[in-house]
Amino acid sequence: KPEEPQSYAGSPIVVDTKHRYFVGKDYSNPYEKDFVELEKYAEDCIDRTIVPRMPWHDEALVVFGKVARDVARHFIQRWNIHKCEKFLYEDSYPFLLPKTYDDPDDLRVKNWAEFLEARPFEVDAQCVRSAGPWSIGTKIIENSIQNAYIQMIDAAKHYIYIENQFFITIADDSTVKNHLADALYRRVLRAHTSNENFRIYIVLPLLPGFDNVNAVQAVLYFIMRSITKGDGSLFRRLEKRGVPPHNYVSFFGMRGHDVLMGLLVTEIIYVHSKLMIIDDRMAICGSANINDRSLLGQRDSEFCVVINDREEEDGVFNRQKVRVGKFCGSWRRRLF
Fold first, then answer.
1. Integer Cα distance of 79 and 72 in angstroms
2. Does residue 103 form part of some domain?
3. Which residues constitute the domain of residue 237?
4. How far apart are CA 151 and CA 245, in angstroms?
5. How many domains does the chain fold into?
6. Which of 90, 206, 235, 283 is the least crowded, having the fewest Cβ atoms under 10 Å away?
7. Hey, how many other C-beta atoms are within 10 angstroms of the C-beta on 271?
8. Any coiled-coil ranges, and where (predicted)?
């Protein structure tokens, strides 16, 4: 009697000598499927009259002049290393060379009125990044984004305002290695010791934006361990030193509301920003989340711009008149 074919719980597997075919399975590879018709970047791929979408909040900035040249050179560096690795002999992917400028005035953007509603601000700007051998081909790992965050937090005098998709930073942890938690802890402890009026405002998504329940639970687990749960959390460390954390640190989420068919409705606004503003004078904005993937340097490739205001105006902190930056101050007032 011939053997009966093996049965499967689901679609049958067709096998030949070299390949296995999973018949009827939905193949999903976002690295391939997400990049379709990139030349139609201005077209919306979703019918907003039919498909409901969660609101997003995402901050960004545009730069001109010398710092824009640094942005371009970072792109060129990334392009060329991947050209060498993947398309070395493909003429359709040429090597890129940075443009040279004999006159610094050539970097000035004189037609800004064509695409900006108001005059751009004059600032000092510096590009920082998380990069390493796999992303830009260097022999060393660069984590200047993390360094910038720490230096700016240490320099804060009045307040720190953070918007980020994640907040995963735990002290003395075997898994989480970035040092932002230590910087925030030091700054609050200094404020308490010196009896300063100092505040940290942190805006996060009310729920992680993942469709997988396990991923949502994992992210919430690490965020709560960063804030209140466990000896390495920010609040627990402050409490051990006799510092009431709620006097200095506040966490927020975002929601929208409206009336739909006569009923009051509300929806989460998903925070996707990667932004920090300090004292209405300094800011950092870019692609880096507050987690190890973005900050350690050898993992995700990230890019941010650090802003220091040149133009000043009068402001008030702790009922005292101070000089604040026009750009960072206006940005903070628009947000908070």
1. 10
2. no
3. 119-335
4. 21
5. 1
6. 90
7. 23
8. none
* Contact call for residues 271 and 165 (beta carbons, < 8 A): yes
Over residues 266-325, the pLDDT tens digits come to 999 999 999 999 999 999 999 999 999 999 999 999 999 999 999 999 999 988 999 999
Buried b (16+ CB within 10 A) or exposed e, 152-184: bbeebebbbbbbbbbbbbbbebeebebbbbbbb
Residue 218 lies in a domain: yes
State the first-to-last Cα distance of the chain, in angstroms, to the nearest integer: 78
In a domain, 71, yes or no: no
- CA dist 298 and 145 (Å) reads 12
For residue 114, CA distances in Å to 47, 108, 111, 118, 119 come to 29, 14, 6, 10, 11
- Spell out the residues 6+ positions from residue 121 whose beta carbon is closer than 8 angstroms to its own: 309, 310, 311, 326, 327
The answer to whether 173 and 221 have CB atoms below 8 angstroms apart is no
Q: Please report, for the domain that includes residue 261, its CATH number.
A: 3.30.870.10
